[in-house]
């Protein structure tokens, strides 16, 4: 079930919200949490029922290991290693086993049979969420809660499929606070507005750009059309993923639950490190706190820190998918940060505008690897972006109509304040309601081309 679909907007969400607050009104707090957890499992099973047992087994395993980590005195490090390894193996089997078999067959000439596994939705996100829980339990940064609380923590439907990545210590107290069990009209207005903002981003911008990005990556070869293709995808992935995040945060706010922000104008970044402080913030924090720092961070010398950055971002690339393109993308971002650190240590400071331009160009070029189907397609786009195949605009790509849209998006990116942040702070009144209704109604006009969110595939 998609956030941008009729069943979700007009049936599932209103029913879940209404029944949840009916239970809360009559102080049936346990029943309310049970209803929300079961509804979240229904939401997850809408795509494929057979993966409900998988997520439930994963939850049960991690809950048991987490409780043991909280109570155990000895062998805690071994128990943590066991828990993390089991999660990584589960993720590896479903997401990377086929990739490894294909590469082994290609490298050795073997003929191992392909597994043809269907990737469970959200497995990357709920696996990382539970790994973070185990590490936090090992550090004794979580409190013990009931099984139903833990199920709700993992499966809470706004974040289940594509994040943000959550921490147990941040989420569970919110479900326990009495003031969060009262219908809050301010939160309803703010949450609905955020949902409409995210829906507009997805339906009006991301899905409009998707066709141009797809056509460009399939056919573009010259300078103009290659850059149009790259920029179309650069803005598509941002408005698609940030749109999902806005919708998730807005839906959670209807239940008086605050999810963490995941984006902060990432294309205004003036360095690769700054970009990762603004893009997919919860993933960046996870990579920093649970991979980079445990590897030693920057505590063991400059070059060791460079190595740790490269390892961290290669893992980040692999997390996104079983493809050499994601590995290259992660390596490039790790390498970009390494170059920045070296320049910062021995080079001269550059003007802020030049830093922004270099960063934005780098991000566009690395998105080519993220989006491309293979190396040859990425190479063709990069050669075109460098002007090596001519400077014109090919008629085959049909990209000319998107040029004004990209021009407006570039202008908005550079000169306007963060629109999501600005609009979400509007006071509840008839003007805000009118704006929200307008965004919602215009978005509904585009429901004839409903598409999945890009990060559903990761």
UniProtKB/TrEMBL annotation:
Query: Which is an annotated Pfam family here?
Result: MBOAT
- What this protein is called in its record is D-alanyl-lipoteichoic acid acyltransferase DltB (MBOAT superfamily)
Q: Which GO terms describe its molecular function?
A: acyltransferase activity
Q: Does the keyword Acetylation apply?
A: no
Query: Topology relative to the membrane, per the entry?
Result: Multi-pass membrane protein
Keywords linked to the UniProt accession: Acyltransferase, Cell membrane, Membrane, Transferase, Transmembrane, Transmembrane helix
List all membrane-crossing ranges.
6-23, 53-70, 77-94, 114-135, 147-167, 182-200, 309-330, 350-370, 391-413, 433-456
Signal peptide range in chain numbering = none
Q: Which family does it belong to?
A: Belongs to the membrane-bound acyltransferase family.
Source domain of life? Bacteria
Localisation = Cell membrane
